[in-house]
């Protein structure tokens, strides 16, 4: 079970570590080490034009927890144009370390940005967490741990992420779609490889470790950050019902928190619309609403 104490303990080494030198390019800072747990613990920072400092989104790649790289993530010009920096991070893959190492890496990266953000041209108290697919699971999970530790992110973004491993197969069975991936319940699924057991054999445990299960254990009235959700209705890898579960659970805990929720009718898992002007424009507007302060005349 993740508690405030375990979250703070996992951050202690990161908060004590100095910033490491890294190559700079005209667009930002590349390959900056945020932790010494693994050679993969690197991030890139892309800043808008201008003097800064800038709020930022920490963006987390997908790949079923087993593959992927921060370089796979597009840096949305729409976000930079709204005066928001984009930080892309790598994390330990499930072939290297089991859960919760991946969440620990996100927490370490967030803590690194909070400690060193001023020197990096960032506003340290206006950082959002976001991700796609597996990266969305990590973003939402880490955000909940940050809330429990008393240092909530400014906003959270979930693009087509799994949110409850225990219900993934039942959700997919409710859709009239051809499924090409192994069942989440099987020992060969990316979800089972992440947690180290077959989800179907320990379903309650698999649900409890994920965002929906963790929210179910939170008391009503806990303040949660604003949440943006986008998911394709024709997703045959992660059912759109997973997005609905998260929305319901988020609102149960904090009925007043804003949720920007849309299911895209003709889209699958990470298909074209998620990199298009509409969705990325929506993302930029959402982040600007909660990260960029309104300047009075």
UniProtKB/TrEMBL annotation:
Entry-linked InterPro entries: AB_hydrolase_fold, BD-FAE-like_dom, GDXG_lipolytic_enzyme
UniProt keyword terms in alphabetical order: Hydrolase, Signal
Residue ranges constituting the BD-FAE-like domain according to the UniProt record: 43-248
Signal peptide: 1-21
Taxonomy, superkingdom: Bacteria
SUPFAM superfamilies tied to this protein: alpha/beta-Hydrolases
Tagged with keyword Signal: yes
Protein name: Alpha/beta hydrolase fold domain-containing protein
């Amino acid at each position: 079970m993740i508690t405030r104490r375990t979250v703070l303990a996992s951050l202690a080494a990161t908060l004590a570590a100095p910033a490491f030198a890294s190559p700079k390019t005209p667009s930002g800072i590349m390959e900056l080490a945020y932790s010494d747990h693994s050679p993969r613990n690197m991030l890139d920072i892309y800043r808008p034009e201008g003097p800064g400092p800038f709020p930022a989104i920490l963006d987390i790649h997908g790949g079923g927890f087993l593959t992927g790289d921060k370089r796979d993530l597009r840096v949305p010009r729409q976000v930079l144009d709204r005066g928001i920096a984009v930080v892309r991070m790598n994390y330990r893959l499930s072939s290297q370390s089991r859960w919760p190492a991946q969440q620990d890496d996100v927490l370490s990266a967030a803590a690194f940005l909070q400690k060193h953000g001023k020197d990096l041209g960032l506003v340290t108290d206006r950082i959002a967490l976001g991700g796609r697919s597996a990266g969305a699971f990590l973003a939402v999970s880490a955000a909940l741990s940050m809330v429990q530790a008393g240092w909530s992110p400014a906003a959270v973004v979930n693009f087509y992420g799994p949110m409850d491993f225990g219900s993934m197969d039942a959700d997919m069975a409710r859709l009239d779609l051809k499924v090409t991936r192994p069942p989440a319940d099987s020992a060969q699924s990316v979800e089972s490889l992440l947690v180290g057991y077959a989800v179907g054999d320990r379903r309650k445990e698999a649900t409890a470790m994920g965002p929906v299960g963790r929210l179910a254990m939170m008391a009503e009235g806990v303040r949660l950050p604003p949440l943006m959700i986008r998911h394709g209705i024709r997703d045959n890898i992660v059912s759109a019902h997973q997005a609905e579960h998260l929305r319901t659970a988020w609102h149960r805990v904090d009925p007043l928190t804003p949720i920007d929720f849309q299911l895209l009718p003709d889209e699958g898992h990470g298909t074209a619309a998620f990199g298009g002007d509409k969705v990325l424009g929506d993302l930029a507007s959402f982040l600007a609403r909660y990260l960029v302060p309104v300047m009075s005349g």
